[in-house]
Each structure stands twice: as C-alpha cells, then as structure tokens.
Amino acid sequence: MTDVRRPEAWRGGRVIGLLFVALMTPAAVALAVSAFRARDVPTAFVAAAFSLAIIIAAVGVLQVRVLERVEPNVEFTGARTILRYDRVYDRLIRVALALATVGGVGFVVLVPSGVIDLSLTPGQKVFFPIGVAVIVAAAVYGEYARRKYGPPSITFDDQGLTHHRTASDTEIRWVDIARITAERTESRPARDVVVIESAPDSPRYMLGDAPWYTPGGAALYSMLRFYWMNAESRTELVDGSAAERLDADQFADTGR
Q1: Is the dihedral of CA 82, 172, 141, 184 positive or negative?
Q2: CA 248, CA 251: separation in Å to the nearest integer?
Q3: Does the pLDDT of residue 222 top 90, yes or no?
Q4: pLDDT above 80 (res 176)
C-alpha cells in the first residue's frame, strides 16, 4: 500500500503506544529477571509466561500504533468484501493472551498455596490472584467468542456494511448514511474514530478500531467515504475489485 493522508482531525496513536511500551517494559524485564533467578520451576514458568506475554503484546502495539505497519487483510467471498485486522498483529495478540492465560492459571492456583516464590505481602497473595483470575476469565471468553462468532471484521457489499466486534454486529446501509467524518474523541485516552451519521434521530456510530485494519486507519476512512459517495462503484464490493483499489489507495474523496 502507498501512504494515505491522515484526516486533519486525527493525531495518531504513537504517543499512547510509546507510553504503553514504556510502562510495560520494566514489568517485562522484572518478570524475566525473576524467571531467571527463580529457584523452582513453578516460579520460573509463571514469571516467564507473563514476561513473554507482555513483550509480545508490546511488539504488537509498536507495530500497529507506533510504526503503523498494517497490511490490510482482505478477503472476497460470496459477493462480499471482508476486511479483518492485520494478520501479524492478530497473531501476536492471540499468542500474548494465550501466554498470559497459562501464566495466570498457574498464578491463581499456586500463589495461595505458597508454591510460587514471589515477593508478595499477605494481602497481595489474596487480592492479586482474584484480579488475575478476572483477567484470565476475560481472555478465555474472548478466545471463545472469537471461535464462535469470528474475529473482528468489516463486511462490505453493494447494500451496506457490517461492523463485527467479537460478539456483536452493527449493520449500516449506504442509503441511510448522511455523513461520514473523522474525529478525535475527548475521552482519555483520546482516540481517532470514524463517525457515521444516519437519520437525524439516530445515534452517531463511532468506529474506533480503524487503525487495526489499515495503517493509521486513513485508508479505511477513505474507503468508507468513497463507496458512500459513489454508488455506481459499489459493484466493486461484490466483484472483488474493491480489494485491488484498497491496495492501490485509489479512493478519490469529493469532499461531500
């Protein structure tokens, strides 16, 4: 793909991405040192699993939010064009979650019994396993939902689009769209979002994961606006040529 100009309202996620990596790196190093110095296998195993999970997740964040090295994962099937998260990022995060789950199960099971040799106060030995158990449960459910409902995706056809987010779908018809804009939320941390407006009495829909589909999300934003404004070109979404246009970044914006 060639570079696409970022919408003026967007500022990207490099600062947040770098901050995440900066905060996670000391934890990963500390866990790696604990694994190396551990005198028993359970402690080394749990510490190493957590350390690797953090490192791999940090690499994924660096790739998508800092370096913006995202390769559109496009599939054409059944007269529909399906866009999914960058393959490398998706695999990295799944591996990181798997390692965190394995390490978390070991932590939850072994810490209360005192098997793991970590510097924890009596209170931490009670509350930390509870917190880790919640995280493990969320990770397990996330993988379960992914296998049952499919990974995050945006499905396009000549009638509209469907934004799939793990266990929920939002369907929007092209003819119902009144406006598509790029905004940066005021929430903290701020996010670059694609805002899709339809009927006056309908709530605005915010698509907040655009940067995971295309570099910085700019190409996806241009793609959405192009097919909204050019009804005669929507046949490309059902004949497979939309993927070629996305790869070449050939989405002219009339500024409507």
Answers
A1: positive
A2: 9
A3: yes
A4: yes
Q: Which of 232, 204, 221 is nearest to 83 (CA)?
A: 221
User: Tokens 């990770």 — which residue?
Assistant: 139
* Weakest-pLDDT range from 9-13, 49-53, 60-64, 92-96: 9-13
Angle at 86 between CA 84 and CA 88, to 5 degrees: 135
Instruction: Look at the block and give the residue holding tokens 């987010």.
Output: 165
Model confidence at 117: pLDDT above 90: no
CB contact at 8 A, 108 and 129: yes
Positive or negative, the CA dihedral 76, 78, 80, 84 is: negative
pLDDT at 219: 93
DSSP string over 9-77: T---SHHHHHHHHHHHHHHHHHHHHHHHH-SSHHHHHHHHHHHHHHHHHHHHHIIIIIS-----EEEEE
| Cis previous bond, 203, omega within 30 | no
Q: Which amino acid is at 20?
A: F
Contact 52, 104 (CB under 8 A): no
Only one residue has tokens 């006056």, namely 200
**Containing H/E element for 249?**
none
Quote the pLDDT of residue 122. 79
Query: What is the reported pTM?
Result: 0.88
**Whole-number Å distance between alpha carbons of 184 and 91:** 28
**To which H or E segment does residue 167 belong?**
none
